[in-house]
Structure formats: structure tokens, C-alpha cells
Design goal:
The structure holds two protein chains of two kinds. By secondary structure, chain A is of the alpha+beta class. Chain A has helices spanning 4-18, 25-33, 182-190, and strands at residues 35-44, 53-59, 72-77, 83-89, 103-110, 112-115, 121-127, 158-162, 174-175, 198-202, 211-216, 228-234. The chains are: A alpha+beta, B alpha+beta.
Chain lengths: 237, 123
């Protein structure tokens, strides 16, 4: 069965093709100019058993314990008790597959925040550089190691801001906005960087006053709160 | 013999001329193809935001944002495919661009991945 969207795409291609014919180019290519096709793949951490998404929290205070099956994900800045989120989306579940030649226009990481810190906090995203397991990850074996504030802020590829005070970007429970990871996903799609997901940490770990942001994990099982990765791209002919 | 040689030479020159003429014609058509492709504009190449609005585990509507003013007046066609079902809808883009919510006729269930196709027709 041919989908409607593909018919549109094929029609656009045909129109572009007709535009090459001498004499008929003017009228037919005018139609092709008016089509702007985008395709989006939304990866959602559902059902709870899906392997398309992996998420886990690493806790400094329980450095050898895995928390991959909890229903929450936590980022925390605290003295000796920092917490980080590790998150990975399998881009190959997109069907049809995102071509390696696609141009990624926008990629957004969506996390549903359930507990908001009382102060504005910047959360940094770093593309992970090594493989990790959802049910084996711990503070001690996590990518980037156990040293706090590492990797340095300068190597982050995305941020989002959370906190209840006025002026914070995300002040209330709900999906956070601003976590744009376009360049990372473009590299994953192109194959120039291996997709090990991301690590999310507080921009300033080790706070004397504990600052914690809590998010829904895959294991919560509530579709409307699941982690999502939204990738919008255009295909190169 | 001389006459025959002249006739043969004339035929050869004429044939060569035809060949050159045909080549020129093909080359010209090829140039038109390049020019047409280069000149094809879109109303946007920006990154549109795409958010699924869920109702009881289904994609009830899709909100497309960050649409530039250049796309104002266009028709946005949206199709959501979860690998099992395929449904869509359309809506007009406001004159100043911005955000549009398109109701999906038969909301497909949320799965591990859905494909959403967007086509801006016009303006």
C-alpha cells in the first residue's frame, strides 16, 4: 500500500522531473517550488520494555549500585551526592530509516520534569563517548568517569535551564523545553560519531545546598511523560 | 569522378553539421536542467518544531512551530504513521507564520517510534 505522504513526495519528484523538459519547465517547476517536505521521527520510551530507549541515573552516594529500573531520572548537585542521567535513543527504530545523507534540521530531547529545584540550575548535555548498559551503569563505571564537573562545561553540546524562581526557563512540572541536540543527532545520522546517547549533569556539581531536578523514566509507564527524541529532517535527493 | 567526389564531400560536411547541431541542442537542454534546480526555492529550510499532542496514548494532533512568516498562507499537511496505522490532516498557516496545530483524523497509538511527514504547500 502506498502511503499518502509518499504519493506527495513522488508527485514532487515527478514535478521536478517535468521541470527539466524544455518548453514545459516554467509552469511545472512553479508547482514544485511550493512544496516544502519535512519528515520527523519521534522516538518515545514506550512500552516500558522497549529497548529503543535506555535510561538510568548514576548516583555518587551509591557509587556501585545500578538504578536503571527506577521510574524516575535525577540530576542533582550536592556535596558528595551528585546524580547524573544517562539516556540513549536507538535511531534505527525510525521507519523508514533516516538516511545517512539526510539533513537534520532540528533534534530535540524531551524530558518530563516532575520535581523542580528551588533555584535556577543549568543542566548540561554531553554526547557519551563510550557504551553503557541500562542495568549495569553505576557512578563508578559511567562514561566520563566519576570525577565531578567532568567533562568540562565547555564541551557540552546542549543545555536546558530549570528552577522555580522567576526567570528560569522551565519553572513548572511538564516537558522541559530548550534541550536541542541537533548537531549531535546529525553526527549520529551521518555516522561520523557513534550514538552512545547523552549524559546530563548539573553545570556546577558539588553544590553545598542540594539542588535536584527529577524527571519521569521509561519505567514509569505513563506514555504522556516518557522521554522522547524528536528528529526533524529533510532527505537529500 | 570529380563530381562524385564533390557530392561525397558535401554530404560529409552536411552530416558533420547536423551532428554539431544536435550536440549543441542537447547541451542547451542540459543547461536548462541545472538552472531550474538551482532556482527552486522553499518557503523555509528552518528547523520546524514538531510536538505530538497525546490523548489516551494516541497522537490526537500535531503542533508544528517555528514556521517563518515566508510560509504564511501555506497549507500544512501532516501525516502520522506508527508502522501500523497511517492518518493525517491539514490546516492553514497563519499569515505571519508561527505555530499550527493539525488534528489527526484517526489518531494512531504512540509506539516506540512514529514518523510524521510534513508538507507545506504554497504559499
Amino acid at each position: 500500500m502506498i502511503s499518502w505522504a509518499r504519493v506527495i513526495a513522488v508527485a514532487g519528484g515527478i514535478l521536478l522531473g517535468f521541470g527539466t523538459l524544455p518548453g514545459s519547465a516554467a509552469s511545472l517547476s512553479l508547482t514544485s517550488q511550493n512544496l516544502t517536505p519535512y519528515r520527523t521521527c519521534t522516538i518515545t520510551a514506550t512500552p516500558t520494555t522497549t529497548t529503543a530507549v535506555a535510561d538510568a541515573t548514576a548516583r555518587q552516594g551509591s557509587a556501585t549500585t545500578n538504578f536503571g529500573t527506577l521510574t524516575t531520572l535525577t540530576v542533582s548537585s550536592a556535596s558528595g551526592a551528585n546524580q547524573r542521567i544517562h539516556l540513549r535513543f536507538d535511531l534505527t527504530v525510525c521507519s523508514p530509516a533516516i538516511p545517512a545523507t539526510a539533513i537534520v534540521r532540528l533534534a530535540t530531547l524531551r524530558l518530563y520534569m516532575t520535581a523542580v529545584p528551588a533555584a535556577c540550575r543549568v543542566l548540561d548535555l554531553f554526547p557519551s563517548t563510550a557504551t553503557w548498559g541500562e542495568t549495569t551503569l553505576t557512578w563508578n563505571n559511567q562514561p566520563f568517569g566519576a570525577t565531578i564537573n567532568n567533562p568540562p562545561t565547555g564541551s557540552r553540546t546542549g543545555t536546558f535551564n530549570v528552577g522555580t524562581p522567576a526567570g528560569c526557563q522551565n519553572q513548572a512540572a511538564g516537558y522541559v523545553t530548550g534541550a536541542t541536540v541537533t548537531s549531535d543527532v546529525a553526527s549520529f545520522v551521518a555516522g561520523s560519531v557513534t550514538n552512545f546517547g547523552w549524559m546530563i549533569r548539573d553545570d556546577t556539581e558539588g553544590s553545598a545546598t542540594t539542588r535536584t531536578a527529577t524527571f519521569s523514566a521509561k519505567e514509569l509507564g505513563t506514555v504522556a511523560q516518557e522521554p522522547q527524541l524528536v528528529v526533524t529532517y529533510v532527505r537529500v535527493p | 569522378m570529380t563530381t562524385l567526389r564533390r557530392i561525397a564531400a558535401t554530404v560529409a560536411i552536411t552530416a558533420a553539421g547536423v551532428t554539431v547541431g544536435a550536440a549543441a541542442s542537447l547541451s542547451f537542454a542540459s543547461s536548462s536542467l541545472g538552472a531550474a534546480t538551482t532556482a527552486t526555492p522553499r518557503c523555509t529550510t528552518a528547523g520546524l518544531t514538531v510536538l505530538q499532542n497525546l490523548t489516551v496514548g494516541t497522537v490526537a494532533s500535531v503542533t508544528v512551530g517555528a514556521i517563518p512568516a515566508a510560509c504564511g498562507g501555506a497549507t500544512l499537511q501532516v501525516t502520522v504513521n506508527n508502522g501500523v496505522t497511517n492518518s493525517g490532516g491539514s490546516a492553514a498557516v497563519p499569515g505571519g507564520g508561527g505555530s499550527v496545530t493539525v488534528t489527526i483524523a484517526v489518531p494512531p497509538a504512540v509506539t516506540a517510534s512514529e514518523q510524521t511527514d510534513l508538507v507545506l504547500v504554497g504559499p
